[in-house]
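In response to reviewer comment 3 from the previous cycle, which asked for concrete evidence that the modeling workflow produces usable outputs, we include below a single protein chain processed end to end. The sequence was submitted unchanged, and the resulting structure tokens are shown without manual editing.
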Amino acid sequence: MNSNIPDFAAHSKLHPEGRVFNDDLLTNPGDLEYAKSQFPEAFHLLDHPDLRSTFATYEKAANKARAWVRWLGFLAVTSGMIALLSAATEPLWHHLKYEEALTVVFELCGLLAAAVAGGSLWLGPWRKRWLESRFMTERLRQWHFQLLVRKGSEIEALLGQPTPKSLETFKAERKKLFDGFLHDFVRKLDSRMDTLANDPDFAGDWLHQPPTNFSNNSRALGHVFEVYRRLRFNHQYDYATHKLSESTDRPIWQFLKWPLLRQESAIRGWGSFCFIAALLCSIVVIVNRYFEIKPSIAPYLGGATLSLAIVGIALRTIQDGLGITKDIERYRDYRGKVRRSLLCFEESIDQHKKLRLMEEMELAVVDELRGFLRTHRNAAFVL
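The workflow returned the following structure tokens.
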């Protein structure tokens, strides 16, 4: 049994930036050459330029929209925090020369926070674009790998008789299937996404209908199993493990690119510091008032106590808005499912059992996407 789970990910060493993504679809420089050397018999099955091109378009849109959602969310929380801090510290600045200007700025921050967090001004459209684009990228990925599971006779014709004619026939059939998939999804992303998230019975988990079976003891299955193990099982396990990493070498200003557990740990640490500091300030306020040590500092201590509490609440709002906790739970469950399926897959010598495990893996991937959509559609940056 092969226990070195992320073996195909070793190809990332060829990239100076380190961790790479989407190499399962061969989208990065050098991926095609590497896959051709690793899977020479099945390379034409993996090389799908039209899919990569379509995937790149939606991937770019998803990343751009996600960045806008997160930065607008941060803007909403920051603006709301400033508005609340102004109320908490009003006794300290109401006598200043620019009191009216400060009041206007603080009120505008409050209005901006409400507008952005409410979703009707900026955040809502960007969130919709992000989720729809991400939904499409993952459905494209599922379409690619479900082909290995559901189109046995077509794959056998390609791998069993590797001739120019069989390759041309396979590419023509694949193009027909892919064009039909795009026709069914591209103009209906909103309804397709809502159906997957809310109505699993009609979600159409399987994107290749009707399926065709591999023949018993098919020679093509050996190639398919190796491709699927390395590019699907291993890749998904490696990605979930990366998302659950507790360490990072990225600086604080790249917080959004930190692994989820590192983000959660940092926010909890900062939040705990704020609430402990606010508690200590409260204790000092009580002691100062009881013993009348220095009455003049009481307003400052009160303002500091409220300010620290507000910052702590803002941090918790960011955590909820990013969906960090739910993402961690989802990735933990998903990684466990992938690992169990992979171990059974590696231990089994029965071809039919291996195919069933591949089908279970594809259904687990769909469930993971469903959980992602539900988490981030309902997440909100509301202070």
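Residues 280 and 305 are 8 Å apart (CA to CA). We consider this sufficient to address the reviewer's concern, and the full set will be provided in the supplementary archive.
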